[in-house]
Amino acid sequence: MAEEKIKxxxxxxxxxxxxxxxxxxxIASQEMIARAQTLxxxxxxxxxxxxxxxxIGVQGICCKNCSMGPCRLPLPKGGIEGEDTRKGLCGATxxxxxxxxxVRMIAAGAAAHSDHGRSVAEVFxxxxxxxxxxxxxxxxxxxxxxxxxxxxxxxxxxDGEVLDRDIDEIALEFAEKALAEWGKPEGELLYxxxxxxxxxxxxxxxxxVPRNIDREIVELxxxxxxxxxxxxxxxxxxxxxxxxxxxxGGSMLATDQQDIMFGTPYPLHAEANIGVMxxxxxxxxxHGHEPVLSEMIVAAAQTDEMIxxxxxxxxxxxxxxxxxxxxxxxxxxxxxxPAGNFLQQELVIVTGACDAMVVDVQxxxxxxxxxxxxxxxxxxxxxxxxxMEQENVIHxxxxxxxxxxxxxxxxxxxxxxxxxRDAEIMIPKHKSTQIAGFGVESxxxxxxxxxxxxxxxxxxxxxxxxxxxGAGVVGCNNARQQHNNGCIAMIKELIKNDVIVxxxxxxxxxxxxxxxxxPESAAVHCGAGLAEVCDTVGIPPVLHLGxxxxxxxxxxxxxxxxxxxxxxxxxxELPAAGSAPEWMSEKAISIGHYxxxxxxxxxxxxxxxxxxxxxFQDYLFKxxxxxxxxxxxxxxxxxxxxxxxxxHIDKKRKALGIDKARERVMMDFAARQAL
Length: 675
Ligand code: NFS
Fold this sequence. Notes:
Blueprint: H1 2-9, H2 20-23, H3 27-39, H4 44-50, H5 55-58, E1 62-63, E2 71-72, H6 94-128, H7 140-146, E3 155-158, E4 161-164, H8 167-183, H9 197-206, H10 213-223, H11 232-262, E5 268-272, E6 282-287, H12 291-301, H13 304-312, E7 318-323, H14 324-334, E8 338-340, H15 345-350, E9 356-359, H16 368-373, E10 378-381, E11 393-395, H17 403-417, E12 432-436, H18 440-447, H19 456-463, E13 469-473, H20 485-496, E14 499-503, H21 505-513, H22 521-525, H23 528-537, E15 542-544, H24 551-564, E16 576-580, H25 586-596, E17 601-604, H26 614-623, H27 625-628, E18 632-634, H28 638-656, H29 659-674
Parallel strand pairs: 6-7, 6-9, 7-8, 9-10, 10-11, 13-14, 13-16, 14-15, 16-17, 17-18
Antiparallel strand pairs: 1-2, 3-4, 5-12
Helix pairs in contact: 6-8, 6-10, 6-11, 6-25, 6-26, 7-11, 10-11, 11-24, 11-25, 12-14, 12-17, 20-28
Bound molecules: FE(4)-NI(1)-S(5) cluster.
Residues 324-325, 341-342, 362-363, 475-476, 505-506, 548, 585, 587-588 line the site of FE(4)-NI(1)-S(5) cluster.
């Protein structure tokens, strides 16, 4: 019966199949790719074999912003000699076209993060108004810490005496002011002032401080309409404004309000990979991005009502797991294990044990519906802005006013489906353990001194050379590359060279499945200096800081390092870099750009859609450094990618005059070894 259904989905003409080992470095994924092929279930790995990317699109020089095109401006063989005469029908140059495409990616990425942030802000306002019992202010300390950044007072003066202000009042004012950041008619993004003073000043002088979050995205769409902004530098100026509105606005507000409502993460222990699914349990996989949904499913799954209901249907319990950034959200706050990252979403269903996959927004492949059709899996969409056309997809809209009830309805559907499993169950044995849940606050605790509750100890270890520098390694997987290889090979090279890594998103999940998120991995993979620090403080060499909106935590960690002193006055002076080795989404471009304009040298793997417009690319890769201190780069080979970062870190160490200290540490180690 299941076999019959499976055959119906396979395309009539035999197509090329991916080699599972070439497709992923993860054994669990390799097993599931092979199983899918045996069952005739098509996955992204096979599709990538049969459809090659468009060579002109990849270079960023195809314009389809009006119906006279698409105008394609391929680079002449052997490059451009003399004047670049390429132009579209309207006369748009390669620079204009590539820049327009690039900033539209920023617009889409910033919109995705910021709309997520807005959803959180709306739920936060409901909670502050006490319109819902399902969401509350959980982390009062965090609320008090961030309230002043929106100009919300935490104390009141009564008869000359300073008293603590009522928490409900603070929460309500914070909620209203936060939501206003998306569309206020005047003023500027309030969180921009959380950046180091020197950086804020640079932004101010360049005229790129966002007015509000939404407006900068709308203006990008206007400017890139046919016949508006036709100067790549001016386009990038607005791209910069929108990207700052993402990193220091929509994303940062999302992180803060999620922490206040659901708790600020602190390090915890968990498992990872497809092997976390359990054959004798109802398996519910939560996929997408907004913790507003996943938090409620976690809460509902822990009720006796749901557990007993699962038992009444013959299961031993409910096993929750996550995919993509939602996985990181429920991991960092509850220790719920991730079943995989972006490229593993179809594979989780191929186990035959996924009773329901619940999705909300972003990074959800439409082909999930086709894979689910081959098994008993119920695929449930929950967000009004993200539905699927396939008939087997169930839509249960999630509303914050009866969130727990909605979550229970979803779980019941999954539990009722447990008895409908029709394929043989094959859950890979592979899973690993990890410590996740780091954040600005917990790094302070772990790496801050006992007497100085700040980042001084971290800085101290960088100054004395034990830690060479830091890298924020983030972003997606990409089916054009071997799954997880770019990220893992690159990070191993970094930590071998004493570079501590902060990670988020799908990269963090890759690190967890490869065992890099344990303190013990330091002794195996790190250089002597970093290994010593990890051993002394008991941390992994790669710190998991959460989901993609939590890249804002990396911005604030860098800001804390500047404040702690000894490493210059701005983020751009730190021996630090950013990286997305396996990027694929528009969000990654927005993230990359807010890293760059925050002063971070940022390297992407694969291809950037800039290569077809060399002048524009030079502007991003070279000239940007003169503006805010950070610049873009592209290096595909993982080892070369790591060494580009290391070279930048060494350049910064030299500028700070701390390069000699590192040489001494290295000699110390050699001397120790000789002994
Ligand atoms: Ni971020 Fe990429 Fe998606 Fe998360 Fe994963 S693909 S840019 S890491 S899940 S958002």
